[in-house]
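We emphasize that the prediction below concerns an isolated chain of 285 residues; any contacts that depend on oligomerization or on bound cofactors are therefore not represented. The input was used exactly as deposited, without trimming of termini.
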Amino acid sequence: MNEIEEKIVQLTKNLMQIRKNPVLILNLKEIKVKNCLKIQEVLFAKKFEILDVIIQTRGGDINCAFNNVKLLRNSSKIINMIIPFYSKSAGTLICIAGDNIIMTILAELGPLDTQIREEREGGPPTYRSALNGFKALEQVQTHTLETLDMATKLILQRSGMKMSEAVTLATNFAGNTSGTLYRQLDPNKIGEYARALEIGERYGIIILTRYLGWTIEKADITIKKLVKSYPTHSFIIDFDELCSLGFPAKSASENEENILDQMRILLSEAKSDFITLIEPLKNIK
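Result of the prediction step, given as a token string:
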């Protein structure tokens, strides 16, 4: 354990003195199979009444995130997700599995639009939001409709044509001007993006109905908002926004905030994944 990790552990122990619950630290640079297996190892045979989970991650593999949720929910009856700074993308999927989501003033989640891994020649792989293709398609559709509406009005004003004739001419004009944009969209990519978004939606609905007792109807509406309602993948979903979506968000207390303020800096400075469980033995059953 290096110096930064030792400081994180000490701050976690200070937090545990306030909250009286065992704490799992998940500082995940990228959610992937390797750290999923580590979490399984750390939680093996553990059964808690309440478990606090401090999480910081920018996201990663949505399938591994779902497996992490199963590991957490199998280990404790009640899960409190604690976010000092950020838990984005696939990290958001993990957080919404919490019975409580405890947030600092700077804490943020993000949209649940699944990220697609793309290999880069001569460089490390990157992740691209599956929502990008749909946003591009929406923009082309909006442009087409606006062009059709504008062209119809101008033809009617300047030509004296009948409505049916004006609409026909305007439709041809809009089709020709938007056709170039539509041809730039790859239908195969759009299909790939659709399937990826469906994965995130399905996992989200399973989590909310299986572990938190939401109805399918409520879960479906909320998860679709979380997947598709935000303009970019980096959009900040803060405490107020999370509450408006119906999630059990809570603000950190003043004493908790002070500790988590110090912790967010250390978590950000850590160079690699840090996964560890800190527990008072009396809480294990």
